[in-house]
Amino acid sequence: MTRGNPIPRRTAPATLAALGAAGAGFGAAHAQGGKSALNLAMVAEPPTLDIQSTPADLVCIIMQHVYEPLFTFDAKGALVPMLAETMPKISADGKLYSITLRKGVMLHSGRELNSDDVVASLKRWMEVSPRGKSVAAQVADLSAKGPLNVDITMKNAYAPLLSQLAMASGMAGIMAKETLAQPLRDYVGTGPYKFKERKPDQYVLLARFDGYSARKEAPSGYGGKRTAVVEELRFVPVPNANTRVEGALAGQFHYADLLPIEALARLEKAKDKVVPIMTPSFGFPYGVQHRGRIDGAEGPAQGRADRVGRRRDAGRRVRRHPLLHRGRQPLPQGHAVLFGGRHGQLQRA
Question: Which residues of 3-27 are buried (b: 16+ CB within 10 A; e: fewer)?
């Protein structure tokens, strides 16, 4: 049985979660109409579903299924394109970033994504996101250059730009321009799941988007091909940790997040019902400034080498898309659903 990045129990600063029997390879539950569905016990009611406006992990866990950024990180922490076709062309002075979008990417509303959506989304992100506001102070111009091209002109060379655009929490998520509002009321993105329903203090329900335009590359971290393996995801707020434990043991939840370490011994004794997962805390590349070439980009980055750092923040852990098939057999046949970043990819149980 695979547990996904296990660590010795003595390393206490870790995260404990559990997969219920169905999530551990015994088959997904079925919603009304015979649809495959997973019940996922979260730590609280999300404060918002606006992924741009908050760095809260809980919002990111749910809405990263709905929205996608222009760039993201692969399994090694390297920047890779997501909605962008390739890494951007960067001018010799490091100020102009020319981005080409992937052709044929569909929004949940049924129309094709274009540069106007990207420009409008990034402008909103720079208004509502704390990270976006810091980027906005460095931006001289942001404009569409044709249906699939976007130019970002910086006031000065600004090496962290692509990392800022790629962060999962407080994501610079690309949205349908006609839905943009403050506060956000309609959730239309490009991800493998679309928003279906929210009942406060009961659940957030996402449904598989059959028109999803996946990348062709092999899955790697946040990057590469993403495939939704079940039809519906039901994120249920369960603030009491002991209730999450009991619900996983009883088969009520396919996944229970952030369980008390004290529950580990009990969960390990119920291996026919649950798969406990224990992972170390870790962070992600943040605010890297350097001389020379940005990997994968066409053109030099001329920013001064003020520092090179890696953010390590136990409160904001990298999470890949937890319920996305990563190039193996479909979920019901002996696979465990693990939150990536903290809990690995889909792995064989």
Answer: bbbeeeeeeeebbbbbbbbbbbbbe
The letter for the amino acid at 67 is: Y
Mean of all residue pLDDT scores within the chain:
79
The structure tokens 């370490």 sit at 261
User: Which residue did the predictor score with more confidence, 1 or 203?
Assistant: 203
Domains observed in the chain: 1-43+192-282+317-349 (3.40.190.10)
Pairing of strands 79-81, 96-100: unpaired
Contacts for 160 with CB less than 8 Å, ≥ 6 apart = 286, 287, 288, 289
Q: Please name which of 97, 92, 91 lies closest in space to residue 164, comparing C-alpha atoms.
A: 97
Cα separation, 333 vs 321, whole angstroms: 20
| pTM for the predicted model, two decimal places | 0.78
Cα separation values, 32 from 171, 197, 331, 333, Å: 33, 15, 19, 22
The DSSP result for 305-341, as a single string, is -----EE--TTS-----TTEE-SSS-TTTTEE---TT
